[in-house]
């Protein structure tokens, strides 16, 4: 781990449907940390849903809003941050998060992801003729970015509570090591 980091937050990254929101809320509750979600921050700042931003402004505009949001997180402390699934593909975002947060990637297989997202309709990137294929394609492109996290946690056969416990454990471990 780089030394020029002041790790006071936890950032959860990972594909859609890996449990970042639910796990993030549990971790924040248990550590008595604040909880922030980059998608929620973008929605609050624009007054639009993520789907509306994609359809009216396009994906590049959404990615620019994500970058701006990550920059705004720099001054936070004792905060659990849940990052949108595509956010770590921008290297500037990952580097920015790493300056103040332990970056934990929640990983899941395409089959598990599909099981978890198939009944949800709010994610524009999965409104596709073949969403399962889309999940595999996006996951393949994003895997190298997700793997740059400090910690990679497979969520396939773990409950949300177990994943949250693991995140807390890793956060405490790194505090001891530093
Ligand atoms: C996206 C994931 C979504 C949201 C947007 C784009 C992605 O967040 O940011 O729909 O590119 O994977 P979640 O990962 O919280 O669903």
- The strand order across the widest sheet is 2-3-1-4-5
As residue ranges, the low-confidence spans are none
Rg computed from alpha carbons, rounded to a whole number of angstroms: 16 Å
How much of the residues is beta strand, in percent? 5-15%
| Count of separate DSSP helical elements | 8
Distance between the termini: 9 Å
List bound small molecules: shikimate-3-phosphate
Largest sheet: 5 strands, parallel
- What is the number of E strands? 5
Amount of helix = 40-55%
Please write the string of helix (H) and strand (E) elements: EHEHHHEHEHHEH
Summarize the structure.
53% of the residues lie in helices and 14% in strands.
Can you characterise this structure?
With 178 residues, this protein is an alpha/beta fold. It contains eight helices and five strands, in the order βαβαααβαβααβα. A five-stranded parallel sheet has the order 2-3-1-4-5, with helices on both faces. The longest helix is centred in the last third of the chain and has 18 residues, at 160-177. The chain is globular. The relative contact order is 0.21. The mean pLDDT is 95. The structure holds shikimate-3-phosphate. Residues 16, 20, 39, 50, 84-86, 123-125 line the site of shikimate-3-phosphate.
Short key terms for the protein model shown above:
globular, alpha/beta, five-stranded parallel sheet, 8 helices, 178 residues
Give the arrangement of secondary structure elements.
Layout lengths: L8 E6 L5 H12 L2 E4 H9 L3 H8 L1 H14 L6 E4 L8 H10 E7 L2 H8 L13 H16 L4 E4 L5 H18 L1
Parallel strand pairs: 1-3, 1-4, 2-3, 4-5
This protein binds shikimate-3-phosphate.
């Amino acid at each position: 781990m780089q030394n020029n980091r002041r790790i006071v937050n936890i950032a959860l990254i990972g594909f859609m449907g890996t449990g970042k929101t639910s796990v993030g809320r549990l971790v924040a509750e248990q550590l008595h940390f604040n909880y922030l979600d980059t998608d929620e921050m973008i929605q609050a700042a624009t007054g639009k849903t993520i789907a509306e931003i994609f359809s009216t402004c396009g994906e590049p505009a959404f990615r620019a809003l994500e970058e701006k949001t990550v920059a705004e997180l720099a001054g936070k402390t004792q905060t659990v941050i849940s990052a949108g699934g595509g956010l770590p593909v921008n290297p500037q975002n990952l580097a920015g998060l790493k300056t103040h947060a332990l970056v934990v990637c929640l990983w899941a297989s395409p089959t598990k992801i599909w099981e978890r997202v198939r009944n949800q309709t709010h994610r524009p990137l999965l409104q596709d003729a073949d969403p399962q294929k889309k999940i595999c394609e996006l996951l393949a492109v994003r895997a190298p970015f997700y793997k740059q996290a400090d910690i990679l946690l497979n969520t396939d056969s773990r409950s949300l509570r177990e994943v949250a416990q693991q995140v807390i454990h890793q956060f405490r471990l790194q505090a001891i090591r530093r």
